[in-house]
User: Fold Cytoplasmic protein from Nereida ignava.
Amino acid sequence: MSGKPIMAKATAVWLCDNTTMTFKQIADFCGLHELEVQGIADGDVAAGVKGFDPVANNQLTAEEIEAAEKNPLHSLKLKFYQAAVGEEKRRGPRYTPLSKRQDRPASIYWLVKFHPELSDGQIGKLVGTTKPTIQAIRERTHWNIQNIQPIDPVALGLCKQSELDTAVQKANAKKAKEGGVMSDDERRKLVSTEQSLGVEEPKMPSSIAGLEAFTLGDSTPEPEEAEPQYDAESLFKSPAPDAEADADEDDNA
Assistant:
């Protein structure tokens, strides 16, 4: 069965008190656990909860209850109620308990500061607030802006981490589709590796291209002349006698 009765636990209390149906039948109809229905019947669960008559409130017919009492295997069928069609899909800001409504400005401030990619509509759905309130905090015109400190709405219990992550992913996807990348100051829209690697390096102007290795002087060193090698024996050896001088001396003699 797709639909469940409104005020399910109160309806279960009434069925336990006023019918002889099994705990399983009541549990299946109200969307509860069978042990929870047994606890209702024993008075351990839902103590003080006033029963909600499903017949008087157009959720069940007397004939349906009678058929279920006669047959323990019979599954109760919720009565079709035209006025309730689409009620579960009604759109609007989420309900915020009174005890947490004072925390909404702090959570709005946190979202505006750390997730500027989120639209006012997304913030409104996350924490259950209105666009004028969000705009007042964005523009710092809120009456209590001096005393508002940014606090994570997940830590305050105003939304789930999965809901926040989903909203941020949608906002980033929309931003990327529009061809824009947020700055670091605006926060957290990280550029993918492919995008960062695709950025071209600055090119050298064509007027000075090819002069990368240009220098003012000749950088090629001149070869040095080899120094003569001397040893002690060649320096101190007496010169050899001249053979022709010896021949002339012999002729004179």
